[in-house]
Design goal:
Elements lengths: L1 H19 L4 E4 L1 H6 L4 H39 L4 H54 L4 E4 L16 H8 L2
Length: about 170
């Protein structure tokens, strides 16, 4: 009798522990979710306007450089410049070109920062919805299928992409 009671309690313990340790996994496609977010179109429009405003002045400087370069090439080809004047013009043009390259890198960095600042509220909202769905659904983990190679197999039944999109539209 004592042996049967021990065996029964062991079986109950095993059944309860396997139930308690059951893991539930889900997956989403964050690229689809973010692209369909209602605020993305506005953010993209604002980013394009910002990028244009940054590059407008830069294009004027670039055209000025091209004009000076073409004028230098005409003078150099006609043979009207002395060797010292040619070297001075080359150094001046090289300095301008370096300055333009540096400014272009700064513009790209500013545009990247602006993009991040525009997307941050969207990403925060998407993350909070994923957290809520994960907790409500008792998911152990939710994977992102938009990252190549991060998830090798996923059943469609566990795809939470539409659930996240639906909550974002509320």
């Amino acid at each position: 009798m004592k042996h049967k009671l021990s065996l029964l309690s062991l079986l109950v313990f095993i059944a309860l522990s396997s139930h308690m340790n059951a893991q539930k996994f889900g997956h989403i496609n964050s690229a689809v979710i973010i692209q369909s977010h209602p605020m993305v179109a506005t953010a993209n429009t604002e980013l394009e306007a910002y990028q244009k405003s940054q590059y407008d002045a830069f294009e004027v400087k670039t055209k000025d450089f091209e004009t000076k370069y073409n004028a230098f090439m005409q003078e150099a080809n006609s043979g009207t410049l002395s060797q010292v004047a040619t070297q001075n013009k080359q150094m001046e043009l090289q300095t301008m070109q370096d300055s333009l390259a540096s400014e272009e890198q700064q513009i790209k960095f500013k545009v990247m920062q602006k993009r991040e600042s525009l997307l941050q509220p969207i990403l925060t909202e998407v993350d909070s919805v994923i957290q809520v769905i994960g907790k409500e659904g008792n998911y152990t983990m939710i994977f992102d299928t938009s990252v190549t190679g991060a998830l090798l197999f996923a059943e469609n039944a566990n795809d939470l992409t539409e659930a996240v999109q639906a909550r974002l539209k509320k």
